[in-house]
Amino acid sequence: MRKQSHSSCLGHANPVYGLMLYRLHYAPDNASLIVRLALLELEQPFETILVDRRLKAQKSSKYLKLNPNGLIPVLEAGDQKIFETGAILLWLCEQHDALAGPKQQRSAFLTWLFWLSNTLHPALRLLFYPEKYIDSDPAHSIALRDAQKQRLTSLIDIIAEECSNNDILKYDDAPNILHFYLCTCLRWLALYPHDQTQWFELDTWPNLKALCEMLETRDSVHIAAQAEGLGPTVFSQPHYPNPPEGSAL
């Protein structure tokens, strides 16, 4: 695992931990991207530590002490070590009282954060890594992927409708973490698995494409894109990453 020390180009010291930096264990274009975006939006200084997937560093004994599941990301905050993307995001929102929408929409925020982390995100994993969930028969992987494409289409229909009608998901000048989480998932659907994304067309959901384009104007997205080699249209017309270090897969 390689370490890269830097602070957010946007901001100031962490109000909870003084001058101590957060430490984000990441790989390019992995779920750690959502946490990076959150830290940038919160204007918090942080240090990134590369988890090199080409070397299977996420399965090393050192990393497994941070996350026994061997998944990325992990966020360290002092002596606290947090894993699970949804848990990290919720913890950051609570620590900094930001990126969660108005207090009166708290129940809606929690509902859709858990929907993204427990429903949409796992459905993506089944699409990307069917071999982790079923036997090695290629025909079974194809069948599982086909089923997931249908399920994901239905899930995206649901979230597209909510983005038009649910106040917590409507975009304004102050996006919340739900928007970044959703658009990152949409990015992945356009790219992965390699050469198997013809079924997904973001233009099918114009309001989601508009959301992706609006997020791309954020400084946080520009900084994250440069750090992870994601290109200029991170969400609306994504390209495979060309990171300065590490590998997405």
Describe this structure in words.
The chain has 249 residues and is of the alpha+beta class. The chain has two domains: 2-96, 3-Layer(aba) Sandwich (Glutaredoxin), CATH 3.40.30.10; 103-218, Glutathione S-transferase Yfyf (Class Pi), Chain A, domain 2 (Up-down Bundle). Helices cover 45% and strands 9% of the residues. The chain contains eight helices and five strands. Strand 2, helix 1 and strand 3 form a beta-alpha-beta unit.
Task: Break the fold down into its secondary structure elements and pairings.
Layout: E1 2-6, E2 22-26, H1 32-41, E3 46-50, H2 61-64, E4 74-77, E5 80-83, H3 85-96, H4 106-128, H5 138-165, H6 177-191, H7 206-215, H8 219-228
Parallel strand pairs: 2-3
Antiparallel strand pairs: 1-3, 2-4, 4-5
Helix pairs in contact: 1-3, 1-6, 1-8, 4-5, 4-6
Gist?
This protein is of the alpha+beta class.
Strand order of the largest sheet: 1-3-2-4-5
Strand content: 5-15%
The number of helical runs is: 8
Largest sheet: 5 strands, mixed
What order do the SSEs take from the amino end to the carboxyl end, as H and E?
EEHEHEEHHHHHH
Compute the gyration radius: what is it? 18 Å
Q: According to CATH, what is the topology of the largest domain? A: Glutathione S-transferase Yfyf (Class Pi), Chain A, domain 2
Task: List how many beta strands DSSP finds.
Answer: 5
* Low confidence ranges: 5-18
Outline, from the CA principal axes? globular
Ends distance: 15 Å
Helix-and-strand structural type:
alpha+beta
- Total individual domains: 2
Approximately how much helix is present in the residues?
40-55%
- What is the mean predicted local confidence, pLDDT? 92
CATH class membership of the largest domain: Mainly Alpha
**CATH architecture title of the largest domain:** Up-down Bundle
